[in-house]
Write a structure and sequence with these properties.
There is one protein chain. This protein is of the alpha/beta class and 217 residues long. The chain has one domain: P-loop containing nucleotide triphosphate hydrolases (Rossmann fold, 3-Layer(aba) Sandwich). The strands form two sheets. The chain has a five-stranded parallel beta sheet, with helices on both faces. Strand 5 and strand 6 form a beta hairpin. The chain is globular and about 75 Å long. 24% of the residues are buried.
Amino acid sequence: MNGNLFIVAAPSGAGKSSLVNAVLAEDHNLLLSISFTTRTPRPGEENGREYHFVDAATFVDMLGRGEFLESAEVHGNRYGTSQRWIEDTRATGRDIVLEIDWQGAQQVRKIFPDAVSLFILPPSMPELERRLHSRGKDSDDVIRTRLVNARDEMAHVAEFDYVIINNEFQEAKRDLAAIFRATRLRAQNVLSSGAGSLPAPLAALFSTPPHEATAKD
């Protein structure tokens, strides 16, 4: 049975990565897809951990060879997801989380219509602006651009299966984990587990002969 594919999108500053990382730390069947990007690493980031950092020419070469499941340009930088890694990892039964934008989500759904998509919203635009400033990663000009782009990104929220408002972190984390768990408990997933065999409780149920009816005097 192939693993589940989860798409998690959000405007910059909504807390997407923090929520996903918190759930990943507790859910050992989940793997995070590491995207390729032309963006310059931020202080503290490592190649192969947050992203695979490549130059623009390398990215274009990979794109031309059809190596990306999806790719998009966001805030002037390019991002792409390795299709081969996704297919190989799903084949092992592991679940995968893709942290991508709405453009990438549209591309992934065309190839994997069974993907489950989630959009994380900030509680308000003023709070989103406060978070962008408080993390201290971007200049004022970059933050203004991110806020403008956030409105465009949030206009696509209705395209997603689930929406989480990240107002209180622990509550949003529980919501995210609950969606992952509920997806695994879908009947089609449970019944197709175990290399095509029925799960033990159902196998026992169907292997037990029915009780013979006894007529009352």
